[in-house]
Input
Amino acid sequence: MKFIKTTNKKRAGLLVKGAMLSLLALSLSPSLKAQDRVQPTWWFGAAGGANFNFYRGTVQVLNDNLTTEYAFNNGFGVAPYFAVFAEYRPGPVWGVMFNVAYDGRRGEFDKTNGPANATPTSLNAEFDYIAFEPSLRIAPFGNNFYLFLGPRLSYNVKDQFLYQDQYQTNNEATWSDVYGIRISAQLGVGYEIPLAMPTSRTQFNLSPFVAFLPYFGQQPRSIDNLTLTTVRAGIAIKIGCGPKPAPPAAAVIAPVIVPVVQFTVNAPKPIPTQRVVKETLPLCNYVFFDAGSTDIPVRYVILTKDQATSFAEIQLQDCQKNPGTRASRQLTMYHNVLNVVGDRMRKYPESTIKLVGASAGKGAKIGKENAESVKSYLVNEFGINASRITVEGRNRPMIPSEKPNNTIDTSYINVEDNRVDIVSDSHDLMMEIKDNSALCLKPVEVTATDGSSANDAQVYVNAADSNGTLQSWSVDVTDAAGTTQHFGPYTSGSETLSASAILKDNQSGTYAIVMKGWTTTGQAVRKESSFSLSREAVPVLPEQRLSILFEFDKSKTVSTFDKFLVNHVAPLVSSNSTVVISGYTDIVGTPDHNLTLSKDRAQEAQSILDSATTKAGITGVTYKTDGFGEVGATFSNTLPEERFYNRTVVIDISPAENVVTK
Output
C-alpha cells in the first residue's frame, strides 16, 4: 500500500487553487455560440482526477485489537478518482448528469508524540468507495462554462489502515465500525473545450472540472468524531452524437431595400467680394412680446424722453454706413422700429396709426395690454398725441403664423402671434397702402460697405436618407486637374464648405463632388454631383440690394411687395445687367420642404421682375436665381423677428458698365 505523505499538503493546496483559477479564466474567455456548433442531446464519457482529502477529528481506537496509547488529530492525503458517466441536455442551459465512480479517500494523519522518550508513530488511512452521483447541470450563460450539483450515494469497498508504532512495527489491518453506505453532496464547476469541427455530427469535448464534497454525511466510522471533506480536480472526455443534418433548404434571398438618399449641392454664383452696396432694408411693422409679460422686451431700443427728443431716423441711416453684414444692419434698424415710428409721426403730424395687439391665444385682454404698452411709449417719450393712436386687442393677429391643425414646430410658431401690428393709412409712414392698410413700414435706404468677403462664401451640401439624417457621411471635391479635397465626416443633415478653400487662387472652376455615407439602417451609399465656382466681377458703380419678405410658409409675395418689385426694384434694372435672386426660409418645417419653398420664392420674384422689365423695354438681363432653404439664411432663428426676416428673397443688381475683375 502506497500513501502520499503529509509534507505534500501545501503543494496539494496550491494545485487545487490553481485548478479553480484556471476554470474561472476559461469561463470568462470567448466561446462558440450554441447556434454555431452541433449540440448533441446525449453525451457519454469517462473522467479521471485526484481527490484532495481533509480529515478532521481524533482517532485512537483503530479496531477491537488495536488502540493507540495516544490520539491522532487531523489528516490529509491525495487519492485517485475514476468515473464513467452519461449526460442528457435537452437545451443549452439545463441538463442532468449521472456518474458511477471509484472514489479514493486515502490520507495520512498528523504525527503525534507518545509517552516520554517514545519514538513518534504514524497512521495512514484508506477509505475507498463506489459512488453514484446524479447531478443537475446548469450552463447559466448558454456557453461552455457550466455548474453541477447534486447528492452522492457511496458504498465502502476498502477500509484499511497502516499503523507504525514506536517499535517500528507495521500493523496493517481493517478499521472497525466503518459505515458501509454514506450519503453526501457535491458542488462543482467545469468548462468544455470542443475538439471536433463545429458542423460535425459527432462532437468530442475535453472538460476540466473542480468539485467540492463537504463533510456532511462523510463520517467514515461510528465510534469517533472523524469527518472527511474532499476537493476533487480532474478532466473528462465527452462524446456526443448530434441529430442527422436536415436536407438543405432552398436559399431565401431577402429583398435588398435600397434607401432613398437625397444629396443636393448649392454653390454661390458668383463668390461675393467686399463692395459698396446701396441697400434697401425692409422694416417689419410687428413688435413681438415675450410670453407672460406685457412690457416691451428689452431687446428693442427704448429711449428716455430726452433721448427721444433728439432722435432722428437719419441717425440710424448714418450708423448703417459702417462695414458690417446685412443681418447686423437689418436688426439694428428693426430694433429701433418704435423710435422710427415716433420720429415719422412727429414729422408728419397728420398721420395716425392703429396698434392691433394679439396674445397668441391668451385672450383679447392681454393682446390689448400689449398694444397699450406700445402706445404709452410713443405718447410719453415721443410726445405723440394719444388721440392719433387707437388700440385693439385680439386673441390672434390679423395674419397669424399659427394655422389650424398645425402640429409642426408649434413652439416656434405660437410665439410669433404674441405681437402688436402697427397699421396706418399714411403714405409717409407705410411702404404701400392697400385697403387703408399696409403690411410693412416704409423701408430704409442706406449706402454701405458690405462686410461679406470671399472667405464668407459657402457651398451648402445636404444629405439625408428616407429614414432621416444619415448616420455619417463625407464628401470628396475634385477639380479639373484631378486634385481632390476631403471634407467630413459629418453627422448632421446639412453642412457648409468654404468656397474660398475650394477655389484657392483660381478665378473659377468646375468641380465633381462625391458623397459617401452610411444610412441609419447600416447600408453604404454613394452619390455624385457637380458645381461651379467663380469670383465675382466688382463694379465701379454701387450695386443695388433689395429685400422682400414673405408670410409664414408662403411662396407668393403679399400684394405690398408685389408692387414694390414692380414700382421700385424693376426701374433699377438696366439692360445687360446681372440680377442675383436668392431665396431663404426659417427653420420651421422640414429641410426638404424649406429648400423647395425658398426656390419657389426666388422664382416668384424673378417672374414679377422679368415681366416688369420686359414691359419697360429692358433687354439682355442675366438672372441668377436659386433657393438655399434654411441653411443659407443670414439671421439666427432664435427670435421671432429673426425668423420673419429669414423668410425673404434678397435681390442684388449689378450694373453692366465699368466692370473690373478682382
Notes: The chain has a mean pLDDT of 80. The radius of gyration is 47 Å. The CA atoms of residues 155 and 181 lie 5 Å apart. The longest strand covers residues 66-88.
